[in-house]
Specification:
The complex is a heterodimer. By secondary structure, chain A is of the alpha/beta class. Chain A is built from ten helices and ten strands. By secondary structure, chain B is mainly α. Chain B is 87% helix and 0% strand. The longest helix of chain B is centred in the middle third of the chain and has 34 residues. Classes of the chains: A alpha/beta, B mainly alpha.
């Protein structure tokens, strides 16, 4: 694999006494979509949330080991978590626009991070973000309408626009299409494929077909362990590990 | 399959496709045997019967194709499951082509019925037929048992069938030069041998499919690169 943008070494996560992730070594390449798959409770979402330190919000949660983004140790005490989360954006399972207008949903992050020097620059960046998220043509004439007046698929693309407005390096996605219909899912999947040219994307999905369609690399987690990682085309056609094969084929291991 | 699928209907549907392949294979072997017997002792009924069973074989191919298509569309299988669902389409297609060769052999038996046979060349044709029937029977067993070693043994036998075809061709051409008035008979014999040689190729294709189902390795593309 080429140079990794995100590198986990011996990464373990504990919730109180319970260990949720066991010594994960995983390299995530830049400008690729990496899918994290595995049954519920396998640790894939815990790993995803470790990448932008979302787990810090859980008091009993503890991280051990090393997790570097662009060679920077993100669990270093000197790291500014707010700045980290601007660099590592996240899109959630359920679209969660702010109770504000479509424009303000995207402008909010730009304002709090001081990323627009003037009103016109702010408007330009909002437009660019909405265009990058493939939403501009659908909302350009109603930017002052509430974000939650949009359809589910549009709301999710609004959340993606909000995420990319602050120009992160990494986008984490936690089942971003699970609440969407097949058409909205296809639009978001197409968007993800376009976004990877500029961003490093890590996605958790329960849909094997979605992981196979949109990712270039796939990592299979089971009971807190990383069982297998490889090129998606290999993992879904001829996985090395029997546990992976049993899972993707829907067979009881 | 060691582990059963969570959706039990999946295993049931796949099992029906697999048993369909075995039934189709058995029918095609009996077609080959009857067509070869007709060369020795032609009876018009045999040819008519074979044409009838060829329709049944074509119907079995369509049935397997439809079942596999439905399984893939509805269950979206992955990895080994996907290969097990896809391969029957290729295997059934090869079996259907073997059935066509059996039908052609029976038709040629009708044309050769009034002509003086060449016992030595006919013996070679019979030998080729016996070999490909045994190879076909074994490849069905290899498919049923997911036995890649047996599939490899079958592939290794094909050059012998190819050589017998070349021998028949050379002998028949020499015979035509000596007795041009019997050219038509010998051309039929050449085409018969060629037909059984093609049957051998179809059996090899099935043996490659068996290998690919089990290992995921595509021998056909590997062979074409080498």
């Amino acid at each position: 694999m080429e140079h990794a943008f995100i590198t986990a070494r011996n990464a373990s996560v504990f919730y109180g006494d319970k260990q949720a992730l066991f010594n994960i070594d995983l390299d995530i390449a830049a400008n690729k979509v990496t899918a994290l798959i595995g049954p519920s409770g396998c640790g894939k979402s815990t790993f995803l949330r470790s990448i932008n330190r979302m787990n810090d919000l859980i008091q009993t949660c503890r991280f051990d080991g090393s997790l570097q983004i662009a060679d920077q140790e993100i669990y270093d005490p000197a790291v500014d978590v707010v700045a980290l989360r601007a660099q590592v954006g996240m899109v959630f399972q359920k679209p969660n626009p702010f109770p504000k207008s479509i424009f303000e949903n995207v402008a909010y992050g730009l304002r709090i991070h001081g990323l627009a020097a003037s009103k016109s620059e702010l408007a330009d960046r909002v437009e660019w973000s909405l265009k990058s998220a493939g939403l501009w043509n659908e909302v350009s004439d109603r930017l002052d309408q509430p974000g939650n007046s949009l359809s589910g698929g549009q709301q999710q693309r609004l959340c993606i626009a909000r995420t990319i407005a602050v120009e992160p390096k990494v986008i984490l996605m936690d089942e971003p299409c699970s609440a969407l219909d097949p058409i909205a899912t296809a639009v978001v999947e197409e968007l993800i494929d376009g976004l990877r040219k500029k961003y490093t994307i890590v996605i958790v999905t329960h849909s094997m077909q979605q992981a196979a369609r949109i990712s270039q690399r796939t990592a299979f987690f089971h009971l807190g362990n990383l069982i297998e990682v490889g090129a998606t085309k290999d993992v879904f056609t001829n996985p090395r590990e029997e546990q992976t094969q049993n899972y993707i084929m829907g067979r009881i291991g | 399959m060691e582990n059963s699928h969570i959706v039990s209907r999946y295993d049931k549907n796949l099992g029906r496709i697999q048993s369909g392949i075995l039934d189709m294979g058995d029918l095609v072997i009996s077609q080959l045997r009857q067509a070869t017997d007709a060369l020795d002792n032609f009876e018009a009924d045999t040819a008519d019967h074979l044409i009838g069973t060829d329709r049944a074989v074509n119907g079995m191919y369509k049935d397997i194709y439809t079942r596999a298509e439905r399984l893939i569309a509805l269950r979206q299988p992955m990895a080994l499951d996907l290969r097990q669902a896809l391969a029957p389409i290729s295997i059934a297609s090869n079996l259907e082509r073997i059935g066509d060769h059996a039908k052609s052999t029976a038709k040629r038996a009708r044309l050769l019925a009034g002509q003086t046979p060449d016992p030595a060349l006919f013996a070679v044709i019979q030998k080729m037929s016996g070999m490909v029937q045994a190879m076909l029977s074994d490849v069905l067993r290899a498919y049923d048992d997911s036995d890649t070693n047996l599939a490899a043994d079958i592939r290794a036998l094909d050059p012998e069938v190819d050589q017998l075809n070349k021998d028949v061709f050379a002998t028949a051409v020499a015979a035509i030069e000596k007795a041009p008035d019997r050219a038509e008979t010998y051309i039929h014999i050449i085409l018969l041998a060629r037909g059984f040689e093609r049957v051998g190729d179809h059996v090899v294709n099935i043996a490659r499919d068996v290998h690919q189902i089990v290992t995921g390795e595509d021998l056909k593309s590997a062979d074409s690169i080498n």
